[in-house]
Every structure is written in structure tokens, then in C-alpha cells.
Amino acid sequence: MAGKIKRNNKHLINAPAGSGKTTYIREQLKSICLNQPKSKILCITYTNRAADELEKGLDSTNITVSTIHSYINDLISPFYSQKEALALYWEIYETKINERITNVTGNAHIKESNQRYIEKYGELTDKVVRENLLAISYGETPFTSLYTGKLSHDDLIMFANRLIKKYPVLLRKIGDKYNYIFIDECQDTSAYVLDIFYDAVKNREGVQLYLLGDRMQQIYRNYDGSFEEKLKEFDTSDRLRINFRSIEKIVDILNKIYNDSYYEQQPTEGNVGVIPDIAPQVIITSDVKDCVYKLQSKFPEILTLYLMNKEKYEEIGAKNLYNAYEGMESYSFGRKYSPTDILSDMSSDNPDALMRFLFLINNVMEYYSNENYGMVISICKKESRFFNSSQFKIKWHTDKKHIKDKFDALKAVYEKDGCLIRDVIKCLFDNALIPEEIKNDFEESVEYQRVLDIGVIEIKNLAHYLSMPYISTQHGVKGESHLSVIFVAADNNNTPNVRMYAFFELWSKLDFSLPEFEALFYSYSKTIKTVEAEIGMKISELSAETHNRNEKNKAILVKYSNQVLDTYKGNILFDELCKDDFLTYLAKPNVGNAKKIFKITKIECK
């Protein structure tokens, strides 16, 4: 229990889906408050929704519940204007800033953005950017705004880690303030973050660090495995074994997939021997639509949960939105968030500021069309991040008319055939409903240009689909329980790169455990990074010039190929997934065969 001081102050608790993790954390917080009322507690969650859920029934001023980005921003924001932080910013981004200034690729959107900067400040040089960049900030976007110092989601975490490593005095703001630290969903927490909290509690007996998560739910590209050695220092004696959500047959299946006694779960007594109306089953079909339709017709109240893919967005009528986000580097394969993450999440936790804003606008316009003006005003006041809150103060009747005139103008644009997202943002700004800063964040972003030129009808189509009863996405049901669910995952080559059939084939063929898979994945990933660092490029970027006619690169790949074969000799997973490609390359070391090796997707897609 968290209320008891332990010799090892670092704890890793396995908390699988359905194990009552939120209840467990809440009970620990209550126990600490009761038994150690002066203790200060920090609880880090993955989403705002999870933070709200944890805070229910907890009214102690000694408990701080926050999402990781909010907490990290609060931690380092007092230093954003300090010369040391600015110096680090330039140390990290100077090369990228100068590449954008010179625009050597001739990108038209960068050229336009640079021209707007020149119009505002007179010229655009390294010196001018330095003079105007007086403080860093967190932009709450997926892209860092290089000229203004607005850090993206990922860069905020990386920058905080680098800043703290350089100035470890910042760790005292954690270690001196809190007695207990809980980090939820640790399996998807960046190693940068885990590193910060590890260093904050290291050699501090008065601070207890608890990591809670489920390795089975891990998104492998969110966490690179670099924290694995430190995890070995954590006490793993506490774990949540009971599955409160699933019947015995489901729990048995999960245990077989884990194939490791440490991760085994047990059903509750009430779920032992339960025979459901619909037996758990796996259906492999080439006609997903027909199969799902028949099941929905037979069981109309069953929840259909889609792992969204490109084909589904075409069916919905949001194909151009998908294509635009798929083309962004920040959402390309292997990055933390995929296009489907962005386009299927209508909550305030959507990591993409533009989609969060567009879903919000669509919601507001639906309320307005239904004459629910009170909700319109309430949302716009609450979402001060996006809206000009000063425009929604009502003192006189004329204030109401003033607001209505603005929304009438917006409605005329929003409902016009062929209306583009760009047109809506312009109308919002022209009517002073959004501040110039928000308009600039979207319009000056090179990455968002394709999105802005898409019709608003695609936002409407997408929002309508995501709001349909008994239809949901992986985001819409996170943390919720349903009696019966159809989970639909179609194999495809697009993001998300899913190979369900290959997984079932591998699982039925080989006897391996989750830890064995993870050990191969992280070790193999590290090898790939080493190889790419030595040849100075990604394997996928190899060409005839850089491989066939570059004896040095070829020699490096041959050397590491032999090392890999020796390292993983006898590893049944490697033998099944990768060995043949390495043998083929060594027999015929050309660029085509080179591109087939040192690819993490060989493991990941299975």
C-alpha cells in the first residue's frame, strides 16, 4: 500500500485493462490523506478525462492531479524567459531555424510564412529572430513554431528533459515538494518523462514514486525502451491481478496472449463460469462490411468499435482530411500519434489543436442551429484558449444581439456549399470571435495548409459519424465498459499499420511471451538506431549511390548483419520475422535487399 513507507522508493505496478486501476489509485490517495495528512501528492495522468475521473471525491488541497504536458509546462514555464533556457533553445533549434529562413527546398508555404514575418518585422534573419524571441512557450500543438519559440507536445517534453539535465536544481521543485508521485499509463509515457521523475526521487527516501500501467496496451513508438534498465530497479511486488470487467473466457484468452505468470489475471467470482449470450469469437473475413452488417442486424444494441483506417474515412466522406494528416511528418508512421488518433478523437484531449478547434466549432454551430444559445455562450466562455472571451460578456440586451449578428454571419458561411475550413477561420477572425494569435497559429503553419483548403463538409461528416450511437472508435470508449462489443480491425498498409491476421498466425505458430517480444523489439530498435547513425541516414533513404557504390556503407551493413544474426541466434521470433531477409542480403548485398533489413516494422506489423 502507498500509505506505508518502503525501503525501495520506486514502484512499478502492473495494472491491466479492467483491473480497477483508477479505483486503486483513488483509494491510495485517500489512504495517504487519512494516515499522513501532511503528505503532498502528485498524480500524473495521460488525459484530461482521466484527471477529471481521478479527482472525483477528492477534495484535499494536498493532492495535485494533472496531465503530463500541463505539469511539465507549469514546472519549467517560470524559466521560459531566462537567458539559460533561451540559450538551450538556440542550441537545439538554430540549424532548423536557419534552414527555414533560407528555405533551400523552395517550399511555397514556407516562403509565404517567411514573407509574413518580413512584413511584420521588416526582415528575416537569425539576428532578427533572436531579437524578437524573448521567451519560449508551450504552443499546445503538434508542431514547434521555430520563429516564436512555441514548443510542440513532443518538443516540450524533450526540452524539459534537456533543461533539467543541464540545470538539475529544477528537480528540487519535484523532490522537495511531493512525498508521493503517481504516474498513470506509464507504458505510454515518454522515456524523457520517466527519466525526469526517476532523477527527482533518486536517493530521496522521503519520496515514493509509483508507475502504473499495462504493458499489453503499450504503443511501442510512444516509448523507445531506453528506460528498461532503470525499470529493473523498481519494486514489482504489488500488482493488480483481478479483472473486474471480463468473463472467465476472455481472461483466459488474455492470459494465453501474455504467456507469462507475472501478468496473469483472475476473473471475479461473479464472472467465473458465466456463459454469455454472444460467445467470444474471432472472425477472419475478406468482407468486413457484410460481416459487421449481419452482426449489427442480429444484435442491434451491440457496440461496434472500429480501429479506423483510410478506407473507413473514404466511406465516411472525410477522405481529404485523412490524406492531409497522413501527409504530415508529425503523424507519419512510427510517430506518437497517427492520423486516426487525430481524426477520431472529439474530446479536449485531441493532441492536434486544429482538429480540436474544428470539432469544437462544429459542436458550437450545431447548438446554434438548434437555438441553444446558452450552450453556445457557455462553450465559448469556457474555451478561452480559442475564443475571444471578451466578446461573450452580456450586460445589456444589445450585447445579445451583437453576438447573434456575429453567429448569423458565421452560420451563413458555415452552411454555404463549398465552404472551406480556411473560410470559416477567416469569418471567425473578421467577427472578432477568435484572437489573431489563433488565426496565425493555423494559417501560418506550413503543415496545416492542405487542411485549410478542405471543405467543411468533411468535418461535418466526420463529427456526425463519430456521434452515432452503437458506433465508436478506440478513443470514444477509452476507460468505459460495455456488455458486448464488435471490435473491427482491417489489415492495411496505411497508418495505423495493422496486421491482425499475421498476429494470429504468429501467435498460433510460436510459443512466446510478451516480455520476450518486448526484449526483441527494444534491442532490435536500438541496433537500428546505431546502424543508421553510423551510415548517417535512415535505411529507407539508401540509394544505389549511397549503398551499391559506397563501399563504406555496404561494409557497415554487412558487419552489423552478421552481428545481428549472431546476437539473435536461436531467437524464435527473430528467426520467424527477420532472419531470411538478413541471409538474403548477405548472399546478395544490393540496395533492394538492404532496404528490407534493419526495419522495426518487420516486428511491429506482426
What does this structure look like?
By secondary structure, the protein is α/β, with parallel strands linked by helices. It is built from 30 helices and 12 strands. Strands 1-7-6-2-3 form a 5-stranded parallel sheet, sandwiched between helices. Helix 1 crosses helix 2 (48-55), helix 13 (310-316) runs antiparallel to helix 14 and helix 26 runs antiparallel to helix 28. The radius of gyration is 26 Å and the shape is globular. The mean pLDDT is 88.
The gist of it:
It contains 30 helices and twelve strands. The chain has 606 residues and is α/β, with parallel strands linked by helices. It is globular.
N-to-C CA distance: 38 Å
Low-confidence stretches: none
Q: How is the main sheet built?
A: 5 strands, parallel
Number of distinct beta strands: 12
How does the helix and strand content classify structurally? alpha/beta
> Whole-number average pLDDT?
88
The largest beta-sheet arranges its strands as 1-7-6-2-3
- Rg result: 26 Å
The coarse overall form would be globular
Q: Which band does the percent of strand residues land in? A: 5-15%
Output the number of helix runs: 30
In percent, how helical is the residue content?
40-55%
Q: Secondary structure elements and their pairing?
A:
Blueprint: E1 10-14, H1 21-35, E2 41-45, H2 48-55, E3 63-67, H3 68-76, H4 83-102, H5 108-121, H6 126-132, E4 137-138, E5 150-151, H7 153-166, H8 172-175, E6 180-183, H9 191-201, E7 208-213, H10 228-231, E8 242-243, H11 248-258, E9 266-267, H12 288-298, E10 303-306, H13 310-316, H14 319-326, H15 339-343, H16 353-369, H17 373-382, H18 397-414, H19 421-430, H20 436-443, H21 449-452, H22 457-466, E11 471-473, E12 485-488, H23 500-509, H24 514-535, H25 544-548, H26 551-567, H27 572-577, H28 579-587, H29 591-594, H30 601-604
Parallel strand pairs: 1-7, 2-3, 2-6, 4-5, 6-7, 8-9, 10-11, 10-12
Helix pairs in contact: 1-2, 3-7, 7-9, 13-14, 16-17, 18-19, 24-26, 26-28
